[in-house]
Amino acid sequence: MKKEQRADSSNSGGTRGPGGGFAMGRPAEKARDFKGSLKRLVGYLKPQKIKLIIVFFLAILSTIFNILSPKVMGAATNKIAEDLSARIAYFTNIESAIEGGADPEFIAQLKAQTVPSIDFNYIWRIVLILIGLYVLSSLFSYATGYIMAGVAQKTVYKIRDDVNNKLARLPLKYFDSHTHGEILSRITNDLDNVGNTLQQSLTQLITAIVTLGGVTIMMLTISPVLTLIAIITLPLSAVVTISVAKKSQKLFVARQTALGELNGHVEEMYSGHKVVKVFGHEKKSIDRFDEINERLYDAGWRAEFISGIIMPLLNFVNNIGYVLICVVGGIFVIMQRMQIGDVLAFIQYARQFTHPIVQTANIANVIQSTIASAERVFNLLDEAEEIPDEVDAKTIDFPRGNVRFKHVQFGYKEDDILIKDMNIEVKRGQTIAIVGPTGAGKTTLVNLLMRFYEIMDGSITIDGVDIRDLKRGDLRSMFGMVLQDTWLFNGTIRENIAYGRQDATEEKIIEASKAAHADYFIRTLPEGYDTILDEEASNISQGQKQLLTIARAILANPAILILDEATSSVDTRTEALIQKAMARLMEGRTNFVIAHRLSTIRDADMILVMNHGDIIEQGTHQQLLEKKGFYADLYNSQFTSNTAI
User: Fold this and answer.
1) How far apart are CA 604 and CA 592, in angstroms?
2) Where are the alpha helices (DSSP H) in 100-186?
3) Under a CB-based contact definition with an 8 Å cutoff, are residues 431 and 386 in contact?
4) What is the mean pLDDT of each run of 10 residues along the chain (645 residues)?
5) What structural domains does the chain harbor?
6) Dihedral over alpha carbons 309, 310, 312, 318 (to 10 degrees)
7) Membrane-spanning residues where (predicted)?
């Protein structure tokens, strides 16, 4: 759970600064093989290459139309300035002629001239052009976002589908060696991170690069000198950004660490709140929470504050550049080297100049984190899969349940052999009990039987057919399991019972429930068989959960049953009833019973006593007691303990 939560909190790639700017404060995770993972991600984008090309050109067009706007507004400003200058000159000439005592006829001629006026038709044309540019820019931007959203979601859909199919092909050892939170984090958080970057950051990156190039070109066409002044401020902006980012990154790391600790502490305390209360550790738990929360608060506000001051500092640096541009531009206007509209247009371009630089740097940070997320997903996709089923796999149409282990050798690691030479022969209808201390190999034997793990040597056969020659689905359909740890999903009780047999009728479901002695308590529930079980089936007791799993096994009607202390979670009276039901269920079937309480397996046809992966004793209950060996010691210790209690 902690791994999952920490993965949740570490996938952020950037933060928005004041005024919509970007602050480069968040630490980016780095991929071990950046080029390889990037190439592989691009491979998933290849089917969408036509749409990506369209997105690329639409983004360019949207940016170009947006870039042209200041230039067009500058032309309008120049026209207004010219018309106003002409009008001012007209009245100035008349006034000067009058004050200078010019000939009245000359003055009359001056007054007879058309009075210069502002060409509003031209201005309106400029306004319409601007509206057209902004509308086109918005439409292209909308189309870019729409198409890119489809590209991103289809790409993530394909990756998620591949991951889901991969999980179905992975062996059990992968799930045994990775936490559920870690696997879920790759499927959810990492893929969401990839999707968000594809949908937003790629378009922003294209826009930022085109904007930077386009603005630079437009600035050069207006004034190379002013462009040089604008560029001079860039090193200072870079120094400010890098220096602040270094400080904020350390604080963000501290914040993420504290957040992971806090989430882990909360999960532990609330999942085990009964134990905390029983031992009176509430105050200790609260004090621990307060201490972590204090560190999280301290690191959090410092990180956000320092990353948040990047934009104000950049604005300060940029304003210095604006002042220089205005002063030099004003001088050029006075010297008639530039028009005032061009200066105003240049100022707007200068304001657009620094934003794409900061945005590009931030996106680079996000992409770094995204490739790291993609790499984790690709690592899952590269995991070793189960050995594929045989193309010409055999089938057992009517399984009888004869099972044989012949010279089976197995170890979870190649250099650490757990089972060295196992030989077992079980006939149909026999009940085989497997006992032994923790780590003896009881569960391993069942895992091998169902091909959750592959044996290293020897063979396991069912009705004379090697299980490696069967398809895994066909093999596992022969088994029914009732485990100590119950598993029920979110749905009705009816759906949970019929999980192993989807075509079961209502009568069969009720019949199985009665055989498992579950029908009575089900009917006492408000909705009966339509009662919805919540996510953890916490609205029924542990014993009732076990009864439902037994009913599910009874309904599935398997050829081979695997029982892992199926009655350990029920009371004594219910256990007695279930033992009778299980006895009826086990008739005519091969049964493997993993037993912890030896009193429940006295009637087993054969008891296998395992220790360190080997079968050290085997026989009936009475035979093993008479041997006075490992089993007898184990049984007597339990019997003595129970008597003492």
Assistant:
1) 10
2) 104-112, 120-169, 172-177, 180-185
3) no
4) 40 38 48 82 89 88 85 81 76 75 72 72 85 89 88 90 88 79 80 84 83 87 87 78 74 77 79 74 85 87 80 79 85 85 85 77 77 86 83 84 89 81 86 82 83 89 90 85 76 86 86 84 88 74 80 85 69 67 75 78 85 83 88 77 46
5) 2-381 (1.20.1560.10), 403-478+558-644 (3.40.50.300)
6) 160
7) 50-68, 122-149, 205-222, 228-245, 316-335
What is the arrangement of strands in the sheet containing 403-410, beginning at the earlier edge strand? 419-426, 403-410, 457-462, 465-466
**Coil vs helix vs strand at 166:** helix
Q: Are 336 and 233 a contacting pair, CB within 8 Å?
A: no
Q: Give the global pTM.
A: 0.68
> What whole-number distance in Å separates Cα of residue 116 and Cα of residue 440?
105
Residue type, 84: L
Q: 567 with 500: CB under 8 angstroms?
A: no
- Which residue type sits at 199? Q
Asked if 195 contacts 153 with a C-beta cutoff of 8 angstroms, the reply is yes
- Written as one string, the DSSP assignment of 579-638 is HHHHHHHHTTSEEEEE-SSGGGGTT-SEEEEEETTEEEEEE-HHHHHHHTSHHHHHHHHH
Q: Could you tell me if 378 and 40 are in contact, meaning their C-beta atoms sit under 8 angstroms apart?
A: yes
Cβ neighbours, 10 Å, residue 333: 16
**CB within 8 Å of 203: residues ≥ 6 apart:** 55, 59, 144, 145, 148
Which candidate, 444, 478, 422, places its Cα nearest to that of 564? Answer: 444
Per DSSP, helices labelled H in 46-103 are 49-99
- DSSP class of residue 48 equals G
Angle at 532 between CA 526 and CA 537, to 5 degrees: 110
